[in-house]
Amino acid sequence: MATALINVPARARRGEIIEIKTLISHTMETGFRRTQVGALIPRDIISRFACTYNGTEVFRAELHPAISANPFIVFSTIAVESGTLEFHWTGDNGFRVTQSAAIVVE
Amino acid sequence: MHRRASRREFLLAAGGVAAGLGLGSIVAVTPARATPAEMQEAIRRVVGSATINPGKVKLDLPPLIENGNAVPLIVDVPSPMTETDHVRAIHVFTQKNPQPNVASFHLGPRAGRARVATRIRLADTQTVVAVCELSDGSFWSDGADIVVTLAACLEDGI
Amino acid sequence: MSSSRARLGAAALALAVAASAYAAEIPRAERRSGYDFMSRETRAMQDDDTANPGMLWVLEGEGLWTRKTGAAGRACADCHGDARASMKGVAARHPSLDVRQGRPVGLEQRINACRADRQGAPPLAYESRELLALTAYVARQSRGVPIEIAIDQRTQPFLDAGRTIYHRRQGQLNLACSQCHDDNWGRQLAGNVIPQAHPTGYPLYRLEWQGLGSLQRRLRNCLVGIRAEPYEFGAPELVQLELYLMWRARGMLFEAPGVRP
């Protein structure tokens, strides 16, 4: 069960550039660490993050093990119309989380 | 692939006390990690044979960081972000992490601003490089050197 | 008149004695949170609730607060209502006396006691995700509240025990907590600044752990750092240390969930 914290303004003016902050709980196990007895801990990361705005992808990121645990990503998009922003995280071991936020654009 | 010992594990083997408090001598070793050549190769895989010019993209990292586990990073490209003139992507690489790729951010005119922030891991004091791709197909880069220190009183051993 | 003056005199004497016993303490005017010793960037991470990774646990705890659990099928909210009101100041006043057990308990132990007594639920393991989430959520409600630990004749022995541990040389390095945190705070140790060791931000997100952890976890790290045998989670020594450290930080503002290197 992954917790995600999304910060999107609830309202914006048409054409305004809005900043979106996302934070999701995930260990982002690099695959380079070893246990005390030397066994390699397998990689387990979020490898892809995408944001769609009323269905159109407006931002996408490919992530590698160098992204810190509990990935934090801040990006912008233009408030073009009212609707729904969807946030998709996918990764190793079938990890798949989607969250959405509504936005009112006037 | 040869075994890559992390710096942290290495210090533990050398004597946890020294690791925890930086006292005594730490036996010199070359930890296995990516080389500047591997970073260049990783950049080439993304950029192809295009020329990379220094400039336009700005990499913002603190010059000294207390812990390499969560280094705040901002990449910013001043750009009108119009249909005809925008940033298509920003890629980030490191020189000395076990592997050179950090992230690739795909933007476009809908972004409004070519500015992305995140937190990255840095295994050691090293150089971080950002490469941006513009809508006209050109590539631009920026580098930043960052010193990484280590906290005292670690958990290793529990 | 004269008897009350005598009483005042006796009280003043008692205070003077008490004050001199704690003369090694950092003067109140010089007390600074670990926050003040961090880089600008790490402070920014703590200050921004939308960027502070500890908030992920707070969010999870918020969900657990209203979830019915245990044989009694009760949620925390069923007794305590809105945590923002009922839990305000609670974390800043722990460890506090558990009258039934006759000793002070930390916040984690208080939560587990509630689970056993009121919810008929088994205790949550120390450093488990659930216990951290609940503790973080409760602690968050004390943000900005001055730390205040009530000491009377029932809790004084535990405070004294904690203070003794704090001043006792331990481990292979034969170091006492006070030698770093009272005598050498502000100086560098292995590339980082030694803080004064006030637990103003617990449970906190430690960058070194890449996760949220309790004060007990941090104290165990300290003990390993001086190459001493760390006390088990929930050990009386750790609660005594917690009690002393929180009392030593009295008056300072609570910051949970903090972020530290």
Strand order of the largest sheet of chain A: 2-8-7-4-5
The most extensive interface, with participating residues per chain, is:
A-B, 29 and 31 residues
Structural class of chain A: mainly beta
Approximate helicity band of chain A: under 10%
Shape descriptor of chain C: globular
In one word, what is the shape of chain A? elongated
| CATH topology description of chain C | Cytochrome Bc1 Complex, Chain D, domain 2
**Strand content range of chain A:** over 45%
Proportion of helical residues of chain C: 40-55%
User: What is the name of the CATH architecture of chain C?
Assistant: Orthogonal Bundle
Domain count of chain C: the total is 1
In spatial order, strands of the major sheet of chain C run 6-5-7
**Chain oligomer state:** heterotrimer
- Number of extended strands of chain A: 8
- Tell me the number of structural domains of chain A: 1
The CATH topology annotation of chain A reads as Immunoglobulin-like
Structural account:
The complex is a heterotrimer of chains A (106), B (158) and C (261). Chain A has a single domain (4-105), classed as Immunoglobulin-like, CATH 2.60.40. Helix content of chain A is 0%, strand content 54%. Chain A has strands at residues 4-7, 11-12, 17-24, 46-53, 56-63, 72-78, 83-91, 95-105. In chain A, strand 4 (46-53) and strand 5 (56-63) form a beta hairpin. The mean pLDDT of chain A is 96. Chain B is an alpha+beta fold. Chain B is built from three helices and nine strands. Chain B has helices spanning 7-14, 16-21, 36-47; strands spanning 52-54, 58-60, 64-65, 71-77, 87-94, 101-106, 114-120, 126-134, 139-148. In chain B, the strands form two sheets. In chain B, strands 1, 3, 5, 6, 8 and 9 form a six-stranded mixed β-sheet that branches. A three-stranded antiparallel β-sheet of chain B has the order 2-4-7, with no helix packed on it. In chain B, a hairpin with a 6-residue loop joins strand 5 (87-94) and strand 6. Chain B starts with 6 loop residues before the first helix and ends in a 10-residue tail after the last strand. Residues 1-5 and 9-31 of chain B have low confidence and may be disordered. Chain C has one domain (30-260): Cytochrome Bc1 Complex, Chain D, domain 2, CATH 1.10.760. Chain C has helices spanning 2-21, 40-47, 54-65, 76-80, 83-86, 107-119, 129-140, 156-167, 177-181, 215-225, 236-248, and strands spanning 96-98, 103-105, 188-189, 192-193, 204-206, 211-213, 259-260. In chain C, helix 3 crosses helix 7 and helix 8 (156-167) packs across helix 11. At the A-B interface, strand 5 and strand 6 of A face strand 6 and strand 7 of B.
